[in-house]
Amino acid sequence: MRTWLTKFQRCPGCWDYLIHLAIKQAVQELQIPKYNMVYVTWIGCNSKMSQYLDWYWSETLHGRGLPFATGIKLANPDLTVISVAWDGDSYGIWLGHLLHSARRNINLVHIVCNNENYWLTTWQASPTTPVDIKTKSTPDWNSIKPLDPIWLLQSAWCEFTYSLPDKDIKWLKEKIKEAIQYPWFAHIDVQQQCPSWKTW
User: Fold this and answer.
1) What is the DSSP letter of 130?
2) 12-191, what's its fold?
3) How far, in Å, CA of 39 to CA of 10, rounded?
4) Which SS3 state, helix, strand or coil, does residue 1 take?
5) Measured between alpha carbons, how far is 127 from 112 in angstroms, rounded to an integer?
6) Is 12 exposed, middle or buried (0-12, 13-18, 19+ CB in 10 A)?
7) Are 45 and 114 in contact (CB under 8 A)?
8) φ, ψ for residue 37 (rounded to 5)?
9) Could you read off the pLDDT of 22-56 as tens digits, one per residue?
């Protein structure tokens, strides 16, 4: 194993571990062969998950995970493709990719690690930051109402879209299994804790 793969690149107590574990358990319980799995991450703390998996994976460019995952699925429809990103990418910077992926309705799973702020750049308000929350980019308070990820995806005709907490790993695992078995585009918004930057 390469030495850089053995170094943990997350803050102490990061809840990415629970999401990571739920995904691994879902794939194992569905008995999907490793050579049939492709895991696509974007930029952000959650992108490090791919480095701790022994499936095929790609850590893609900032915000470009869904086009990359779509290309993989179109090239080989037999593969199980899971894309993992964060709220800043999915619901903000590259929202267009998410909405049109949902409309295109290709069979892949998109999981959003939603901790309601831009964590990689240390605590700016994101599209899901609640009103009245102080962040580095909103030092007095955030005055903009947050997006509703479920309503957003439903508006793009996504029929498999759920929001659930990262704390309930069993429920999260079961919902990921359902998403993998769903024949069209599936979206899961994980309400994620962030001990370093989510202070509310």
Assistant:
1) P
2) Rossmann fold (3.40.50)
3) 19
4) coil
5) 13
6) exposed
7) no
8) -105, 135
9) 999 999 999 999 999 999 987 777 777 777 788 89
Q: What is the pLDDT of residues 49-103, one digit of tens each?
A: 777 788 898 888 776 789 999 999 999 999 999 999 989 889 998 899 999 999 9
- Nearest alpha carbon to residue 83 among 153, 172, 186: 186
In DSSP terms, 160 is beta-bridged to: 186
Angle at 185 between CA 168 and CA 176, to 5 degrees: 20
DSSP string, 135-187: -SS-SS---SPPP-HHHHHHHTT-SEEEEEETT-HHHHHHHHHHHHHSSS-EE
Strand ordering across the sheet containing 37-41: 56-59, 37-41, 80-86, 109-114, 186-191, 160-165
Model confidence, pTM: 0.91
Residues 16/172, Cβ–Cβ less than 8 Å:
no
Tell me the Cα Rg of the chain.
16
Which of the four pLDDT bands, split at 50, 70 and 90, describes residue 191?
A: very high
d(CA 135, CA 113): 18
Q: How many residues are present in the chain? A: 200
Closest CA to 25 of 181, 196, 170, 195: 170
Residue in the block written with tokens 């319980």: 29
